[in-house]
Amino acid sequence: MRFLFDIGHPAEVHSFRNVIKNLQKKGHEVLVTARDKEMTHYLLDHYKIPYVSTGKNLKSKAGKIWAFLRNDLKILKAAFSFKPDLIINFFSPFAAHVGKLLGKKVIGFHDTEHANLTIRLARPFTDTIVVPSCYKRDYPGKNVIKFNGNFELAYLHPKYFKPDNSIFKTLGLKGNEKYVLLRFVTHTSMHDKGHKGFTDEEKIKITEKFSDYAKVFISSEITLPDELKKYELQTSPERIHDVINFASLLFGESATMASEAAVLGTPAIFVDKKRIGYTNEEEEKFELVFNFLNDRDEKDISLKKGIEIISKISNNEEWDIRRQKLLTDSIDVTSFITWFIEEYPESESVVNNDPEHQLIFK
C-alpha cells in the first residue's frame, strides 16, 4: 500500500518515525510532506526519512493565509503524483483537504483539546480521529478511536529508546550530577493566540532560584535575554531525550516535553494557559507531571513546587516506580498505530467492536 504522512511539527517526526520505518520494512511505500518549522526538517534528515518540503510557517496574517493555500497546493501536487491509498496526519487541515479532494481516506491523530482553529479546519475532512484515552473532547458524527497511552510512548517506550549517559560528558557534568532543564516556547501556534508565557524577568528569576539547587540548562524556542545566554542548552536536537532522561526536573511551557519527561520517569512542572488531557492524566493518575495555569499566583506556586522537588530528590527510585505504572497501564503505541494504519479500515471496525483488542499490543 501507499501511505502519505503530513508532518507539521518536530514532535510529529518522533511520533511517526518508528511507524514509518515499520511500514517500510513491511514493503509499503511512504511519502512524507513536511513544514519547515523549527527542527522538523533537521530531524527528518537525521532519521533518514525523505520528504517533500511544503515551506516555512509565516507569522503575519497575510503570510498565514498564503501559507495555508501554499501548503494545500504542495501537498496536493505531491499526493497527485504519489497516489496514496491513505493519508495520515496530526489533524493537519492541509492534508485533510487534499484527502477529500482526491477521494482518499484521512486518519487524523490528535491530543490537544484546545487547538480549536486547527480542529475546525481539519475535522470536517477527516474520516477517523485517533486520540489517547485521556482526551476530553467529543466529535459527534465522527468515528473516534481511543488508545491507552500517549504519543510520546511511540518513541520513548523502552522498546524504542535507550538513554545514553554520555550526555553528562556532553553537558560538562560529572556522572549523576543534578541538573534542571528549563523549557520556554514561542506561543506562535494557532492554539496559542493571546498567550504570552513567561516574561524575561520571570525567566531570570526562575533560573536564579533553581541555580541554588542544581546546574541549570535552558532549551528555548525564543531568544533568551543576555543574562541567560550562558545557560542555553548546546546539545544537538536529537539528543534532547537523553537530556530529559537524566535531568532531576523539567520545568517549562511545553506539554510535549512534560509528557516526554513523564514517560522517562523525570518529574515535570508544566505551566500553560489551559489544561491538557494527557498531562492532567500524568498528574492525577501517575504523579509524574504537575500542571499549573500561567497566571501570577500559579506561576509562583509552580516555582515553589519545582524547588520542593529538586531540593528533596536524592535518587530516581520513587519516580521510576511511577513511570513503571504508566508503562504498565499503556500499550506499545508504535505497534498499535502501525497495525491500525496497515489494516485500515478493517482495524477501525475491530477496535469499534472490541476496544480491548488494543491490549494485544502490550
Broad structural category: alpha/beta
Total count of helical runs of at least 4 residues? 15
Q: What CATH architecture label of the largest domain applies? A: 3-Layer(aba) Sandwich
In total, the number of domains comes to 2
Fourth-level CATH superfamily of the largest domain: Glycogen Phosphorylase B
Distance between the termini: 26 Å
Could you name the CATH class of the largest domain? Alpha Beta
Uncertain parts: none
Mean pLDDT level: 94
State which percent range the strand residues make up.
Answer: 15-25%
Largest sheet: 7 strands, parallel
Assembly type of the chains comes to single chain
Number of strands: 12
Globally, the shape reads globular
Rg of Cα set = 20 Å
Order of helices and strands: EHEHEHEHEHEEHHEHEHEHEHEHHHH
Spatial arrangement of strands, main beta sheet: 3-2-1-4-5-6-7
Can you give a write-up of this model?
- This protein is an alpha/beta fold.
- The chain is built from 15 helices and 12 strands.
- The chain has 2 domains: 2-156 and 331-357, Glycogen Phosphorylase B (Rossmann fold), CATH 3.40.50.2000; 167-327, Glycogen Phosphorylase B (Rossmann fold), CATH 3.40.50.
- The chain has helices spanning 10-25, 40-46, 61-82, 93-102, 116-122, 153-156, 167-170, 200-211, 240-246, 255-264, 277-284, 296-312, 317-329, 333-342, 346-353, and strands at residues 2-7, 29-36, 52-56, 86-89, 105-109, 128-132, 143-147, 179-184, 215-220, 249-252, 268-272, 289-293.
- A 7-stranded parallel beta sheet has the order 3-2-1-4-5-6-7, sandwiched between helices.
- Helix 1 crosses helix 14.
- The chain is globular.
